[in-house]
Amino acid sequence: MRESLKKINLRSGFLGISKVKSIDNFFFGEGSFSQIEKIIQERQELHVKEGLTSKFVFYFDDFFDHDNEIVKKCSYIKNVDIKFIDTSDEPSTELINKLRDDLVEEGLPSGLVAIGGGITLDTVKAVSNLLGNDGNAEDYQGWDLLKKKGVYKIGIPTVSGTGAESSRTCVLINQKNGLKLGMNSDFTLFDMLILDPDLSKTVPKNIFFYTLTDAFFHSMEPLSGSLRNPIADSYALMAKNLCEEVFALDEIKSSVGRSKAMLASFFGGIAIANSMTALVHPFSAGLSVVLKVPHTLANCLVLLAMEEFYPEERATIIQAIQKHNIEVPSDICSQLSDKQFDDLYASTIVHEKPLSNGLGKNFKDILTKNKVKEIFERI
Question: 225 phi and psi, to 5 degrees?
Fold first, then answer.
């Protein structure tokens, strides 16, 4: 491990005043989801006292079905609507606009609940934002464009690693302009979280691993970037250590592994909320936009192609892949056309802030069109 990644960066010291971006209200532990009815009822009572409706809308990952015990448990709660999110594609601006319009037509709720992986969590954060701000989703892709807070929202992740539960963004794809970018804002943060490792029991091992590596990347990118700061470093180091502890287990999906992975995801999300990603995420965004590769798998594939930038971290992931017999697809970009490579370049290089964090303001001198193509050709 590089010496700079072993300790908290104190270049900027503790002399300034920093606003820490985090979530104050959350439950953690095996079985914590059992408190859902009590949590919702207490929140409904508070909303009614504030002159709001008691209506809540639950959005489930479509991995679940109507007969699932978790879905049934939530359906018994008074004044709750149950909906399902199609997670076969990453959330689009078009989808968010439609979901907002549906809620307006049906009658606005006072709260939203997301139960699922990163796609479901990001979808609900984005819908909440639109319920509190005029315009459409594409108007708020960028940094600090939201004017005010949306409706109350609770995040309940069922897989660990994306950090969507604790990050200040919700990543959306705008197919019209080929842009994958989030609504980066403090208003995007969830109001409450329920972090129950039991909910990730049924996640297939390969997917569990891919999402866990996302938490690992959420630690290594802030730790190696120019925007390092003591707050982000603290959370990033905790996330990184937890990921490496899970990688070292004989069974990554054991009770200990699931608990540590869920905490790593939470800490990693806070790390990037207080700093930023770097090189991996812009390249993975290109894969998702152009080739529809799922986000967490795309991140994993990109890191494996970035030996010159992250040699030690790449070695860590390769060792974990071999230890746990993880299936990783190959030759995804081996037969692409020049047009597809052009689209990959455009969808990657547009992410100036994280690329600048990773390589400095002159990142385009390093990431030339030929260099970007060379990296993608390794995938």
Answer: -95, 170
